[in-house]
Specification:
Blueprint (H helix, E strand, L loop, with lengths): L9 H19 L3 H9 L4 H17 L1 H10 L3 H21 L3 H30 L4 H29 L2 H10 L1 H9 L24 H5 L2 H17 L2 H12 L1 H33 L2 H20 L3 H29 L6 H30 L1 H22 L9
Length: 402
């Protein structure tokens, strides 16, 4: 087994910072802006919904194969570069040919490429710094992704307003250049290919899917994450609908504030969480992430003042910061010595996608039948169940000496 301690260059670490920042910029262009753009092109809501549904299904089903593909690759930089080229090609296709077959193909291509891009980022991080420092590195990743998301949303919103919705996708495609330059600055020799896959497989380890599915804590983590996103996925959209019905004039501003506040929290506290997870362990922060969610649902059910609704989103920032670090960190712990780190990321990502996909339908059904207050309480109850599952079933994954 290769025990060479990691000594990544400062250039590579800075390059990873900027790469994550620009990737967040690129991915932001495919958020709500896509629906706005297609609506401006006289698309029906049925066709828009069909494209988004197909892309969502590809994203869910492609998580595990995407992780396995990253494990099979010997150069995460090459895979990440190809994925970025595909995503930028999708953006260019949207901008130049907004017809149904082209947009549908672009959406499928974008979703497929994203299934490998996310694991590539975490794999490169692990390959650069190793298991001993991955917690702090994941915190830094979360900070730069949050900053990138926030700035890109503001810039692209202004671009769409001052120019046109189409211009957002030309800008997204153009961002391929600085993103690839940042990727190029990450030196290949600094990324240990075995460490990037969870470490070299031990001689007694079966390097098949069974290696992963036999790990009970990993399956528990996947199930708890699915419950979390089942409760969390529709909270902000449901709150946005409620605010729009109460005060449509201020709804857009309030929703924007509700998106920005968590991003600020993530940017502020993520490095601290990642650093202290290496000392205190993973479980306390995982419990914190899950505990903030039922409280948020309860407050959304009882608070009506717009300013307090924005303040409640601080809890979303706490959950996002802790969860975005703890999930890949615990996966790295559980898959050490299996060479299947990225496949495990994909399995957990699939569970997250399933929970997030079902959440809007579940919340919408509860709202239609019982009202928004009961819907928020129902989501909070699911969040309590996810917290109880973590408390009772999920063990600490940090071993002595890590």
């Amino acid at each position: 087994m290769n025990s060479r301690p990691p000594h990544p260059s400062r250039k590579s670490l800075r390059g990873l910072d900027w790469f994550i920042f620009f990737v967040a910029d690129v991915q932001t262009g495919f958020g709500p802006f896509l629906a706005v753009y297609l609506t401006s092109q006289k698309w029906t809501q049925v066709d828009i919904g069909l494209v988004l549904t197909v892309a969502g299904l590809v994203s869910v089903l492609g998580q595990a194969p995407g992780g396995a593909a990253v494990d099979a690759a010997r150069s995460e930089r090459l895979v990440a570069g190809l994925a970025l080229a595909a995503i930028s090609g999708s953006a260019l296709a949207y901008a130049t040919s907004p017809i149904f077959p082209v947009v549908l193909a672009g959406a499928v291509l974008h979703a497929s490429a994203s299934c490998v891009l996310g694991p590539c980022i975490v794999a490169m991080s692990l390959g650069l710094v190793g298991h001993a420092a991955i917690g702090e590195r994941l915190g830094r990743n979360a900070r730069f992704a949050s900053i990138g998301n926030g700035l890109a949303a503001a810039a692209m919103g202004a671009c769409g307003y001052l120019l046109s919705p189409r211009a957002v996708f030309f800008v997204t495609a153009a961002l391929l250049v600085p993103t690839l330059l940042a990727l190029r600055s990450i030196r290949a020799v600094d990324i240990d290919p075995e460490r990037a896959h969870g470490g070299p497989a031990e001689r007694t380890t079966d390097r098949t899917l069974q290696t992963i599915v036999r790990k009970r804590p990993l399956l528990i983590l996947a199930g708890c994450a699915m419950l979390f996103h089942l409760a969390n996925g529709s909270m902000l959209p449901l709150m946005g609908s409620v605010v729009t019905m109460r005060s449509s004039e201020w709804a857009t501003v309030l929703i924007a504030a509700c998106i920005v506040v968590p991003q600020l929290i993530v940017a502020a506290v993520s490095p601290w969480i990642g650093r202290h997870a290496q000392v205190w362990g993973r479980r306390p922060f995982l419990l914190l992430a899950f505990a903030a969610l039922p409280l948020r649902g309860l407050l959304f059910a009882t608070v009506s003042d717009p300013y307090w609704l924005v303040a409640v989103q601080v809890l979303d920032g706490i959950s996002a910061a802790a969860l975005s670090i703890m999930v890949p960190l615990m996966i790295a712990d559980l898959t050490r010595g299996t060479a299947r780190f990225n496949l495990a990321q994909g399995i957990v990502g699939t569970a997250v996608g399933i929970g997030g996909s079902i959440s809007p339908t579940l919340a919408g059904s509860m709202t239609d039948h019982f009202g928004s207050r009961v819907a928020f309480l129902g989501l909070a109850a699911i969040a309590v169940a996810s917290l109880a599952a973590v408390w009772a079933l999920m063990p600490e994954t940090k071993s002595d000496g890590k």
